[in-house]
Prior knowledge:
- The protein is of the alpha+beta class.
- The chain has one domain: SH3 type barrels (Roll).
- About 20% of the residues lie in helices and about 35% in strands.
- The strands form two sheets. The protein has a five-stranded antiparallel β-sheet, with no helix packed on it. It has a two-stranded antiparallel ribbon with strand order 2-3.
- A hairpin with a 2-residue loop joins strand 4 and strand 5.
- The longest helix is centred in the first third of the chain and has 19 residues.
- The N and C termini lie far apart (about 45 Å).
Amino acid sequence: MTSIRILKRLAMALVAVVTTSGIASAQYCEGTVYGLSGNYDLAKGTGFLAVRAQPRASARMVGQFFNGNTTEILGRKGNWYRVAIGGIDGWASAKWIRNSCPY
Length: 103
């Protein structure tokens, strides 16, 4: 058996082990922001979806999303999604993000 064939078989075996052990169970998930008011007012908190440092409404705001923005969804904690877009990494209310994630 050639060394290339051996390497291919080892690689396939590794993929099988990783997949069945759950290590590779994470999958890419993307969501789209929807349903927000069209009138932006920071003082009233309308027209944007606040991205927070922690999964709670009182946490510091680290960014804002708007209707139509897409974001990677990295996880979920209660009614909050952990999100990432354009260098922003934080938490946003799941109520305003439409997706097909398994969680």
